[in-house]
Amino acid sequence: MLKELKAALTMPQFPMSARYDAEWIMESQMGPCAIWLLEFLMEQMTLKPGMRVLDMGCGMGMTSIFLAREYGVTVFANDLWVKATDNYKRFKEAGLEDKIIPIHADARSLPYAEDFFDAIIAIDSYFYFGTDAFYLDYFSKFAKNDAQIGIVYPALTMEFENGNVPSYMMPFWNWSMHGYHSPEWWARLWNICQHIDVEVSDLLPNGYEVWLHWEKIRHLLRGEKSDDCNLLEADKGNYLTFGRTVGRKTVQN
To answer: What mean pLDDT, rounded, does the chain reach?
Structure first.
């Protein structure tokens, strides 16, 4: 099984992720493979050693470990659902306790100084808390001038007609999925924030296939399909995929 798992997790479009232990990836995962999505995001972001990076909604710290190890940055690993003590143990096991600071905090009550971070990222988390018109104005306060803010999210290829979820999706739909939107929708939302310049907002070209491949790996291990797998199979790539949006905080005079 381990050999098959390693093969399934080795995807040519995500070469950095392929170097990581397959069992560790599955044990550390809380959603679709976060380090695949992080590689996709990093195509449009520039990180340099020594930068301070906020990893918002880090889950069990997989993306934080990846950022610290691959880019040499100092990571503030922020999550609401996972205790900081639990993540600290994982960071110590990875030998990165001096490079990653675990934080337990709500997205709407963050404990950081303004103008503190050189970059901010959020993988598969921002759609839970960032869909209102005012959140980015608050969130971006913690980024330095000229810092990039980048997110990857479950996306729609286009918005639902009249905002109605297609009937074939409803058996597998849950409340959090109302945060799924197209990259065009996210770009319009972010353009409301006057001090953010949107640099890119687009789809992972084969995002549906990547997502379904991940869910089939989980099916192989668990022996039963998740609701996400059923939803994706019902959708057949009509709407569901992954997207990314990257903006830069403009210099304030």
So the answer is: 95
Beta strand 74-79 pairing with 52-56: parallel
CB-based contact 34:154 (threshold 8 Å): no
What's the pLDDT tens digit per position in 188-244?
Answer: 999 999 899 999 999 999 999 999 999 999 888 877 888 999 999 999 999 999 999
pLDDT for residue 252: 59
pLDDT of 36-47, one tens digit each? Answer: 999 999 999 999
The first and second tokens of residue 211, run together, are 């997502």
Per-residue buried b or exposed e for 112-124, using 16+ beta carbons within 10 Å of the residue's own CB: beeebbbbbbbbb
Please state, in angstroms and rounded to a whole number, the distance separating the CA atoms of residues 203 and 37. 11
92: Cα within 13 Å, side-chain hemisphere? 6
Single out the residue of 147, 76, 68, 73 nearest to residue 115, CA to CA: 147
d(CA 154, CA 240) in angstroms, rounded, equals 7
Q: State phi, psi for 9 to the nearest 5 degrees.
A: -85, -5
Q: Is residue 167 packed enough to be buried (19+ CB in 10 Å), middle (13-18) or exposed (0-12)?
A: exposed
User: Domain 2-243, CATH 3.30.300.30 — does that match?
Assistant: no
Predicted model pTM: 0.96
State how far the alpha carbon of 122 is from the alpha carbons of 77, 170, 199, in Å. 10, 27, 16
What is the 8-class DSSP label of residue 172?
G
- Report the distance separating Cα 153 and Cα 171, nearest Å: 22
